[in-house]
């Protein structure tokens, strides 16, 4: 530590070179931070709040409906604490581009999602309003909806009996928030009563698309899932029960292998960075051959010279990397606000910082090592003669 | 103050050059290169420039480390950029590949995709009566009512389930897609639970060899053939519509109706006739327009991501190149000063440093593009489109490679400009004195 000012002075010996190198490092870590945040955004939801919830849908296809009567039978399976149901609605608002994530849900749906906070008085009113809908705060903000508004939604799937076409009318009676700001993506949903959906749906009734099951003990989730599937085995509506995490993960895996793409890009970036900073470090040390020899002459040991050059490399990477990640933590909230819920990440995740810092130290050490070894092995007499 | 103005001027020059450069077609770039070559051969300053460049290139070997940083740094930028753009283009090409001007798809009004549409038996009959529909040899209208179901299937070499698109079609479906060819086995027979699978689907999902049996919905289905089409259909499984509807309890409804028109110009009257029918609430689109709409969203996202990643990487590479070239100019300070002292002008020095950087950049760009072309051209990936898996191939073509090279040269231009000007403005006396 006492050599810090010495290392610092060596690092900024040539200001313009260090500045240029730092910008390259910053660019690399900005990219790393952004891509890793996207990866985190896509894998979010695999968290503790989802533990102990199962999603039960048709084994044949996600879109295939299940009988509504199945819910009561699932509730009797030992280990099941609660059962709620949901239907796809496929809502769009005003323009086909404005897709609204909208589900017709059973009255107890919010009991199973304690991470979503719907004020009790609004929930009571919702219970009494047949055409009532509750919307997430982010969605309400996106379209400027307020409690008391009457809104028309077009269903891309289900015609309404009341209007004779695709338009359904809802009364907004409640606005819910996600308790954890990191899950603000969940505020992009609209929920309304399954009963209204069932009565007003011109395509017949009595079906739901999936059940959400709360298990009493998360450790038993797999056993309960098997027991639920056993109810409908060999019937014409076989089910597939899986944990919420597994359900989401299978969706994401099919999108594109995001992890692979991120890793491939970052591999290319960091390989280049390694070469670039390695080259700069080599140059820097070669220039200072003379000074290093002087340091050794006045009594610095070989190991402390090695450590100093190594520390210089690490310091450069940590400096650039920290600035880069700090920039990302400024960009990410803006990006997330602009994306309209597509990217529900508000801050750089702890894991991103951790991996980032590890990368900084590792790359710093790798680029510092060759010049450090060179400095350590420096022969004082020769070095002084060469530099003279 | 003077220095500041000069730097400001350089910055402006750089911006202007970049704007022109992005608009320039490849023929313009070739013309520039030819002009440069003529100038170097025919004029006095040009010949000076070429000899200074030759000297610079001669010392490249001693600077192999920093030169390779420029080359590899730019290769990385171009490689990542071209790979991401190739992904977006491949996806779009696959989805649009099945689209034609003389084929129309009819969906229920307001539906964005097939999965959201429903058509009754009466709707299908009414659509068949519309004008402008081509007929086969027997006089039957070439119309196929179709039903798609996202069927849960085991992925190949994995314990996960994916969603295969199972399409129930009528007899005329084959005539409606002339691209589609059976490459193995035969077509399914109407009335039997037989499947014909696309090559993409066969690659993605387990147990889809000819002769295999798979369970879809409630029933077991036999795979009797494989087809190739080079578009999104290749990710699907095809079967008789009535059998699919029976298995998935869809009655005799369909989701979309595909219509072969007598010609592309028959589309407007066909669409108008459907719109005029008060009983029908449907919308018609040519399949070309329909598929283009389906792929636009995701393709745009991939493109934007590619450009953002490319820009950030390019910033890193520009500063890397600046660093290396400043170092190179500093190392050659005496040499350049000597040249100036014996009468070489500043212009040739600027040109030589810039030319050197841009040649290194070009080398890097070619390297990156070639590696991506070798690795990713034809690389198969799959993604979710709507509810189902779509298999597509990365497409690296000449236009993309040219885009990559343009980026490489732009990075080289910026990375070389400032060091070149510094080299030319170096005071001769101090540079000569310095060691």
From TrEMBL, chain A:
UniProt keyword Membrane, yes or no: yes
Subcellular location: Cell membrane
MacB-like periplasmic core domain sequence ranges: 23-230
UniProt keywords, alphabetically: Cell membrane, Membrane, Transmembrane, Transmembrane helix
One family name in Pfam for this protein: MacB_PCD
InterPro entries, per database record: ABC-4/HrtB_transporter, ABC3_permease_C, MacB_PCD
Transmembrane segments: 255-276, 305-332, 352-373
Domain of life the protein comes from: Bacteria
Name this polypeptide is given: Putative ABC transport system permease protein
Keyword Cell membrane: yes
GO CC, any one term: plasma membrane
Record membrane topology: Multi-pass membrane protein
TrEMBL record, chain B:
Domain of life of the source: Bacteria
Domain ABC3 transporter permease C-terminal: 308-427
Keyword Transmembrane helix: yes
InterPro entries on file: ABC3_permease_C, MacB_PCD, Macrolide_Exporter_MacB
Pfam families linked to this entry: FtsX, MacB_PCD
Topology relative to the membrane: Multi-pass membrane protein
Protein's cellular compartments: Cell membrane
Keywords attached to this entry: Cell membrane, Membrane, Transmembrane, Transmembrane helix
Residue ranges constituting the MacB-like periplasmic core domain according to the UniProt record: 69-275
Chief location of this protein within or outside the cell: membrane
GO CC, any one term: plasma membrane
Gene Ontology MF term list: transmembrane transporter activity
Transmembrane spans: 27-43, 64-87, 304-329, 349-376, 399-418
Listed name of the protein: Putative ABC transport system permease protein
Species of origin: Rhodanobacter glycinis
